[in-house]
Design a protein that fits this description.
- It catalyses: L-glutamate + NH4(+) + ATP = L-glutamine + ADP + phosphate + H(+).
- GO terms for molecular function: ATP binding; glutamine synthetase activity.
- Pfam families: Gln-synt_C, Gln-synt_N.
- This is Glutamine synthetase.
- Strands 6, 7, 8, 9, 10, 11, 12, 13 and 14 form a 9-stranded mixed β-sheet that branches. This protein has a 5-stranded mixed β-sheet with strand order 2-1-5-4-3, with helices on one face.
- It is built from 10 helices and 14 strands.
- The chain is α+β, with helices and mostly antiparallel strands.
- About 30% of the residues lie in helices and about 25% in strands.
- The radius of gyration is 21 Å and the shape is globular.
């Protein structure tokens, strides 16, 4: 096994200028990540200089067998924390051979929204709080929980320490450092309310880069849990009963919100979000009705409300924002399995472009 590890860690630059590029894309479910690698003649830092590639869409639920070719367009480059050196991870989106985005390509429409002059002028910032649950591989039960049983009730686990409170910290810290190495603007991690549940935060990130960075952060997490023999779940309510669900709270601000008088802009934006509550909920992740019950730090899925420092609201405004009269707000509705391309662009579209 030591020889295998040595071979995996070979420094390619000693003997060749060639590098390995791992192309990443989103599969047919809209939540599954796929990837494959190819050799390039030398280092690349501009995604526009990377070759397009293809894959068998009939094996990912994205194309019929008789016309199965789907084309990958490279969109963002990150350093590869697994192979290191000049090797890279490449976030791609998917198109037909004719150049049309396939139905599961949500990045295409998001990029159109973020390139709109009115949106670009507002320089939208996002900070996404990605919650997830670590599961024991063979039993699909949270890490650290007795098989077929339950731990003590919630209370000591949030940001807790100790072998009886924090389960999987080695995975969490490995992921944290790997994301920093990759160039992802990961801003922190913490243990969550339910044991075996954790959170990492990505941001602030501007526009489309928020979606790119969160998807690649998820990819890195999946790869690390693969190595560790643990399963990561983004289900919004992995355990029924008196246990917290998992969300992807999305913090948001525009240039106007960050400037003097921004609090009035924030309140107007929240009012617009309330008018489109149903449309947003329908796009904020599958199974979210199991999480947004009005309990466990959530608002009921059918009710829109906002408040200052209120974690039981749909939208939370921080005390500092209220005090300073400018800043940001937090949309607490998105589920942990949401598509960040959809959520970030929809918030921008509703608050900047939509005219009620």
């Amino acid at each position: 096994m030591s020889l295998l590890a040595d071979l995996q860690n070979i420094n390619l630059s000693v003997s060749t200028e060639k590098i390995i590029a791992e192309y990443i894309w989103i599969g047919g479910s809209g939540n599954d990540l796929r990837s494959k690698a190819r050799t390039l003649s030398g280092p690349v830092t501009d995604p526009a200089k990377l070759p397009k590639w293809n894959y068998d869409g009939s094996s990912t639920g994205q194309a019929p067998g008789e016309d199965s070719e789907v084309i990958l367009y490279p969109q963002a480059i990150f350093k590869d924390p697994f192979r290191r050196g000049d090797n890279i991870l490449v976030m791609c989106d998917a198109y037909t051979p004719g150049g049309e985005p396939i139905p599961t390509n949500k990045r295409f429409n998001a990029a159109k929204i973020f390139s709109h002059p009115e949106v670009a002028a507002e320089v939208p910032w996002y900070g996404i709080e990605q919650e997830y649950t670590l599961l024991q591989k063979d039993v699909s039960w949270p890490l650290g929980w007795p098989v077929g049983g339950f731990p003590g009730p919630q209370g000591p686990y949030y940001c807790g320490i100790g072998a009886d409170k924090a389960f999987g910290r080695d995975i969490v810290d490995a992921h944290y450092k790997a994301c920093l190495y990759a160039g992802i603007n990961i801003s922190g991690i913490n243990g969550e309310v339910m044991p075996g549940q954790w959170e990492f935060q990505v941001g602030p990130a501007v526009g489309i880069s928020a979606g790119d960075e969160l998807w690649v952060a998820r990819y890195i997490l999946e790869r690390i849990t693969e190595i560790a023999g643990v399963v990561v779940s983004f289900d919004p309510k992995p355990i029924k009963g008196d246990w917290n669900g998992a969300g992807a709270h999305t913090n948001y601000s525009t240039k106007s919100m960050r400037n003097t008088g921004g609090y009035d802009v924030i309140k107007k934006a929240i009012e617009k979000l309330g008018l489109r509550h149903k449309e947003h909920i329908s796009a904020y992740g599958e199974g979210n009705e199991r999480r947004l019950t009005g309990r466990h730090e959530t608002a009921d899925i059918n009710t829109f409300c906002w408040g200052v420092a209120n974690r039981g609201a749909s939208i939370r405004v921080g005390r500092d924002t209220e005090k300073e009269g400018k800043g940001y707000f937090e949309d607490r509705r998105p589920a942990s399995n949401m598509d960040p391309y959809v959520v970030t662009s929809m918030i921008a579209e509703t608050t900047i472009l939509w005219k009620p």
